[in-house]
Amino acid sequence: MQAINTARFTWLLLCVIALFTFISQSRYKETRGKRNQVIAWDVSDYYVYLPALFIHDDMELKGDWLAEPGARATQIFKHDDGGHFIKMSGGLAILYSPFFALAHGVASATDQWPADGYSLPYQFAIGFAGLTFAMLGLWFLMRILSRRFSQTVTSFALVILFLGSNLLYYSTFRSAMGHAFSFCLLAGLMHGIDRFHDNSKGQTSAWLAGMGFAAGLMVLIRPVNLILILILLAWQLPKGRLPSVKQWFLLVVAACLAILPQLLFWHHNTGHWLVYSYGEEGFFFTDPQLWNGLFSFRKGWLLYSPLMALPLLGLWRMRRHDKLGAKTLLVGLSLFVFITFSWWCWWYGGSFGARPLIDCYPLLAIPLAHALSSMEAWPIHAKRLARGGLVLLIALSVFQNWQYMAGIIHHDSMSQSTYEKVFLKLHFPEGYKATLDPPDYQAALRGKH
Prior knowledge:
Blueprint: H1 2-23, H2 42-47, H3 49-54, E1 76-78, E2 84-86, H4 91-109, H5 120-146, H6 151-163, H7 167-172, H8 179-197, H9 205-221, H10 225-236, H11 245-270, H12 290-295, H13 301-304, H14 309-321, H15 323-340, H16 361-375, H17 380-406, H18 416-422, H19 441-445
Antiparallel strand pairs: 1-2
C-alpha cells in the first residue's frame, strides 16, 4: 500500500506543479490590447471549427468574423473546385468541445467577456483542456508502470517524462497544441489494452468503442500517429487474448466515426471526401534530417531533452525480458522518427525541441522504466551517484523549459553560438541577436537544407 501511495503522490505532485505553472502565466491575467496567445497560430486552425459551428453558424467559412481581431484562423484556403477548407483537421476541436461549452456558458452568462469564442474564458478553457489531458495521460502511465515496476521506478519515470522533457512546456505554456492530447490518447490505449488482457475485468461495448474512438482521434489529429497505434498493437496484443471479430468490428467502426465529421466537412465544402490540406508542404524521404532533428542546436530532441536518451538505452535491457517487444519498439519508433524528420520543416516552426516526438512518449515509458530499473541492482554509491545525475538533468530540463517560455531560447533560430551564450543564463546575453541563425523556410519547402 505504501508503494502504491508513492506513485500516486508523485502524480499528484506533478499535477500541482503543472497547475501552478499554468495559472501563473501572465497571459491569463490581462488580455485587453494584447494579442491572443492561446488560440493563435496552429491552435486557431484546430479550434476554428467550434466558433464556426456553434457561434456563427458558418461552416462554409465565408463570414467577416474570421477577419476580426482575435480570430487568427490564418490558414483557411479555397479549393480548386470551390469551397473553403482549413489546413488543420478537426480532431482537437472534438476534444476541446466540452471545455469550449463551459467557457461559452460562462461568457454568455456574464457581461464581463464577449461570447465570441476568443475572449479570456475561451483562452483559459482551451489551455486548461491540454493540461487536463496531459495529467490524465500521466495517470494512465502511472497505472501501466505500477503493474510492471517498483513504485520508486514508476515515480522516477513519471518525473522524467514530465519535468525532464519538453512535455512540461506543451502541457502548460502551449498546452492547447495537439501533443498533450495525443500523449494522453496513446497512454489511454495502452492502459485499455492492459485492461483487455486482464480477464478478471469485463469490457463493455461502450468501453471498447471508446478505445476505437480514441484511436480514430489520434489519426485525425496527426495521420502519422497511425504508426504509433500499429506499434502498440504489434507489441501488446500478442501478449494475451485477441479481440473477437465482433470486438474488432466495434473498434474499427468507432474509429471511423471519430474521423467521419472531418470527411463530411470536406465533402460539404469542396465536394471531395478527402482533401490534402497542406498544399505544397510535404515530405522528403530521400533526405531525412535525422541528425538535425535529434542533435542540432536549432531543435535537437536529445539536446533539449537529454534524459530522453534513457528509453533508448532501456531498449537494450528490455530485450532480456521482452525480446520481441524491444525489437518491435526499435523498428517502429525508428520509422516514426524517420517520417517525422522527413517533413519539409523538420524543426516544426516555432517550437521547443522536437515537439512531434512527444506523441510517442507513452511507448517510451516502458523502456525508460527498464533503464531505471537496471539501476536498482547497482551498488549503493553508484545508485546514489546516478540518481544525483538524474536530478541535475531534470533541473536542467526544467530550466531550459523556462528559458524557452521566457524567449531566451529562440523559437526557431538557435545556433551553437546562441546556445553557448544562453546556457544557464537568466537574461538575454550581450550580442544575442547576432548569433541567431534563422532558417530559410522557402528553401526548405524545396527540400534544400
